[in-house]
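Notes to self after the call with IL:
- keep both proteins in one doc
- input above output, always
- annotate only the second one for now

Protein 1:
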Amino acid sequence: MENAVRVVDLALRAVGGASYFKRFPLERYYRDVRAALFHPVSTDQTLELLGKTAFGIPLMDDDVIWA
């Protein structure tokens, strides 16, 4: 998802201001990849979950990963 944000940002720069019009797909891509940064979980939450799982650290009740 973070790479998708970078790719869309580069595409927006290449196309210019016209890319913000709804009639072009880049406008939707921009909105969608920005939303992906927060759904379903953030990068930090994903890394924490993967790290704890890899090292066998139990998830605590207050580790709300999917909120």
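Protein 2 (the one to annotate):
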Amino acid sequence: MSIAVNIYYSGENGNARKFAEEMEKSGTAAAIRSEAGNLKYEYFFPADNPEIVLLIDIWKNQEDIDIHHASPMMKKIAALREKYNLHMKVERYISDDAGIPEIDKEFIVL
């Protein structure tokens, strides 16, 4: 089982993108990627809305997320969100570890 958290950061005047760029340049994103249990931490930019950044954040389990949330890293992230006046929409998904169903594989090019 893994837990994926999709966070949509939104702002004005390119602030969501500036936030993601600062997370990368400051090394904060790299530090999160190196935390125990982090499987993915990547930013994406929707083609249809330049004021949104999507963060896909995947963890091995809830315990690893709880440890991350209790870390000093969260204060850095919160300060940057405040600096750029961002709003968030969050989605959470839990994997079923069943893999891709056979019927879906014909639509997937690997």
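Annotation: The radius of gyration is 15 Å. DSSP finds five helices and four strands in the chain.
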